[in-house]
Write a structure and sequence with these properties.
By secondary structure, the protein is α/β, with parallel strands linked by helices. The protein has 17 helices and ten strands.
């Protein structure tokens, strides 16, 4: 099996395409099942966030696996693989491992170095574990990716530049409000992890008074009480909107929450001398209806606009340090992968040899019943020693060769020569925790497509940039 990554992100696709590809929580299990039911796909992990939709898969062939995954993505998007082709990227084998590790460390994020991606990868892995779509290869890949991500933040300063997407968006919004959010009333729509991060960040920056609204008012009340904010029902959205200067919208709604009609009603009651109404749309699908940006007195900052405005990355030294970590970890993973591929084959070969020895000793006992117990035991020890000595050098050598590039061919050759049936390795039972004091982050930044909203379902066993 080989690793294959197929996906689209803010780098390659506009928000409209990401909206098509986004997999809501209610569809995750079905989509994962659809992926692993394909002829060339044996394992799959699906990452669906506001900035990327990616499939990590173990495939038996590149072209077959690519076709299978693109077919499922096309079905999800209500489109065809050909129509999506210009927006998709593909990474195979070594490049696939490198990409996943870059995602985990935040190097591939819109806000380079942001740590919330670790929580989102963990959630994606957790879900795949719960649906049994992750096997030996992806279990190891995801666990190592989470570890590499934590290491990058612990050993470098990349997280100094790696602010959350919410923080980055609010810094952009401050440019429309005299450069400072302090004292500006704000509204957060959505009480999931992204909404929680929005309330916390707004509170830290001195914005206020703060209001939280959510489809489930109880969740909004609990979040608001944690930060001394107030809660408002969604039925009063237009009225609440007219009293604020900045809005953070991060729900999992499949339809726009801030429609042109709602915003027009709010603007009619809002004092225009207060400056523009700044709407931060951090959701995929979008929370802000497309025509709202055309309204006078409104500034909309969405994922597409953030991608253009946040072109500058962190300090070169920090990014270079993380690049070095990724390079070394990729090579370590590939070395493990080659060795892991040959280890079951070597074990199967030794098992085959033991079976042959046992069969011949039984045959000897039948032919020579006159042999005493001591003599039979000595013959058995001698035969076993001969077989083990014959196998020792080849098995040691094949392990060494397997650790080199292309080493998986040696294991395949052994299986072919000796007609070995190698059993699948049992998957692990737990998903590693990625919380750490040095990172100090939630398990996810509440990416809408990862299920942050109050009414989203919980993964079977329980949100990348």
């Amino acid at each position: 099996m080989k690793l294959l990554v197929v996906g689209a992100s803010y780098r390659t696709a506009p928000v409209a395409t990401l909206e098509q590809l986004a997999v809501p929580p209610a569809d995750l299990t079905r989509t994962l099942d659809r992926l692993v039911a394909q002829p060339y796909v044996s394992e799959a992990v699906l990452v669906s966030t506001c900035n990327r939709v990616e499939v990590y898969a173990a495939v038996s062939g590149f072209h077959g696996g690519l076709g299978d995954i693109c077919a499922v993505l096309g079905e999800q998007a209500g489109s065809t693989p050909a129509a999506l082709a210009n927006h998709l990227y593909v990474h195979y084998d070594t490049a696939a491992v490198d990409h996943v590790f870059r995602v985990a460390t935040g190097l591939d994020s819109m806000v380079v170095g942001e740590a919330q991606i670790l929580g989102q990868l963990r959630d994606a892995y957790h879900w795949a574990t719960g649906t049994d779509s992750a096997g030996r290869l992806l279990h190891e890949l995801m666990q190592q990716a989470l570890r590499v991500g934590k290491r990058a933040h612990a050993e470098t300063g990349i997280d100094r530049a790696g602010q959350s997407v919410v923080t980055a968006a609010l810094e952009l919004a401050a440019g429309y409000l005299d450069g400072d959010l302090a004292g500006h009333p704000a509204l957060v729509i959505g009480a999931g992890a992204m909404g929680s991060l929005g309330v916390a960040t707004l509170s830290r920056l001195g914005a206020g008074p703060l209001t939280v609204t959510n489809r489930g008012i109880d969740r909004a009340v609990r979040l608001a009480e944690s930060y001394g904010a107030s809660a408002a029902p969604m039925t009063e959205l237009a009225a609440t909107l007219s009293t604020v200067d900045i809005v953070v919208a991060a729900t999992a709604s499949t339809e726009p929450v801030l429609t042109r009609t709602v915003v027009e009603a709010a603007l009619a009651e809002r004092d225009p001398s207060r400056g523009p109404l700044v709407l931060l749309d951090l959701a995929v699908p979008r929370d802000v209806e497309e025509g709202v940006a055309d309204l006078a007195g409104v500034e909309v900052i969405d994922i597409d606009r953030m991608a253009a405005l946040l072109a500058d990355g962190p300090a070169a030294a920090d990014a270079a340090a993380v690049e070095g970590i990724v390079t070394g970890e990729v090579e370590s993973f590939l070395t493990w992968l080659r060795g892991a591929d040959v280890a079951p084959t070597v074990a199967a070969l030794r098992g085959r040899a033991d079976d042959v020895v046992a069969t011949e000793l039984r045959r000897l006992a039948q032919r020579r019943p006159d042999l005493g117990d001591d003599l039979r035991a000595e013959v058995a020890r001698t035969v076993h020693r001969v077989v083990q000595r014959l196998l020792h050098q080849p098995t040691v050598k094949v392990r060494q060769l397997a650790a080199e590039p292309g080493g998986d061919q040696y294991a395949a050759l052994l299986r072919e020569l000796f007609d070995l049936q190698v059993p699948q390795t049992s998957p692990v039972d737990t998903v590693p925790d990625v919380l750490s004091p040095e990172i100090g982050m939630p398990s996810a930044d509440g990416d809408p497509a990862s299920g942050p909203d109050a009414t989203d379902p919980v993964p079977p066993t329980g949100g990348a940039r």
